[in-house]
Every structure is written in C-alpha cells, then in structure tokens.
Amino acid sequence: MPVKHPIRRKGKSGDVAYSQAFHGRQRRPNGTMPVNIHQQCGYLLQQLLIATDGRRGAHELVSDIRCTLDSWVMMEYDCSALDSETLNGLYFPGQAVPRLEATNAARVSALEAISAALVQHYPDGMALKRVLCLIGRAIDSVNKWDGKPRGKVYRETFSGAAVTPQSRV
Q1: Pairing between strand 162-163 and 155-156?
Q2: Where are the domains of the chain?
Q3: How far apart (Å, rounded) are the C-alpha atoms in residues 114 and 44?
Q4: DSSP assignment string, 82-115
Q5: Exposure winner among 52, 71, 91, 164, fewest CB in 10 A?
Q6: Is 20 a residue whose pLDDT tops 70?
Q7: Tens digit of pLDDT for each residue in 108-155?
Q8: Helix-then-strand count for the chain, H and E
Q9: Which CATH architecture is the domain 18-163 placed in?
C-alpha cells in the first residue's frame, strides 16, 4: 500500500523569495521589522564583530548574520521609506561603537537579544529559522571559547605596526 505524503500548501510559509545580483535567489521573512529594532540589532552585531575577533568561527557567523539582516532590510524598505544613508548605516555604521564587555556571558546575551528581536518581529519560516540556527551556532562557538585568540587575529594598521587583541583593549 503506497504511503501518502502530506500536500504542501503554497503561500502558508512566512517567507518570500527575492533575488540579488551577486547572491541569486534567496528567501526572507514575509514581514517587516521596525527600523529602530534594525538599528539596535546592527549596533549589537557591530559590537559582536569586534568582541569575537579572536574566535574566527564565531566572527564569521556573526558576519553572516549581519549580511543576511542587511539584505533583508534592503528588501523591506525602499528608498522612498528611508533615505539611502540611513538604510546603508543600519548594519554597516560608519562611526565607531564602544567595545562590548569581553566576557562570553556578554557576547551570548547580545546574541540572545538579537534572536529575541527577530522572533518577536518576523513570522515563522525557513529564512528566520536559518538565521536563528546561525545565532545558535555562534552562541555554541562563543561558549566553547576560552578567551584565547584563535584563527587570523593579528592585523596590521595603516602605519604598519602590528595590532594584537591585547593591545586594542
């Protein structure tokens, strides 16, 4: 006796498809998050990028989350709703942000705050679940981190002097 598979109903998902020139077809939640919440998430993500510089896995995950949310906000709001300077500055601000406390608890709480904001303002769907999974993986990576630099941490400044994580504090 053949097994009947449930019929997937189209249009019941909380996602919509969109396309970008360099990334191809993607999905994003079928909803909009308020601009001030996007600003808060962008601010926290900028702090997290600085705070996870010594942990390459977490740093790359936070960067992926930031890029995903930036592409979502570009699709949610057009230039008539927001000027391009505000729109571009949500997740890639030009000004320096203060450092996040250098503890794993502070990093995890910032990631959990971003997760809570996304769950509160976006409908459930595969795109949201993907970002929440990235946040969960970043939390796992931060929790495994003992605070010692891992990966490519040492960078050079414009003057040519090497900058280490300890000298930037």
Answers
A1: antiparallel
A2: 18-163
A3: 8
A4: S-HHHHHHTTS-SS--PPPPSSHHHHHHHHHHHH
A5: 164
A6: no
A7: 999 999 999 999 999 999 999 999 999 999 999 999 887 666 555 444
A8: 5, 4
A9: Up-down Bundle (1.20)
Residue 100 has pLDDT above 50, yes or no: yes
What 150-158 contacts at long range (C-beta under 8 Å, 24+ apart), as own/partner pairs, is 150/54, 150/55, 150/56, 150/57, 151/54, 151/55, 151/56, 151/57, 151/59, 152/56, 153/53, 153/54, 153/56
Query: Per the confidence metrics, is the pTM higher than 0.90?
Result: no
Distance CA 33, CA 37 (A): 7
User: Residue 143's closest CA among 98, 103, 92?
Assistant: 103
User: What is the DSSP secondary structure assignment for residue 163, as one 8-state letter?
Assistant: E
Q: Tell me the two tokens of residue 122.
A: 């976006």
Q: How far is CA 99 from the centre of its chain?
A: 17
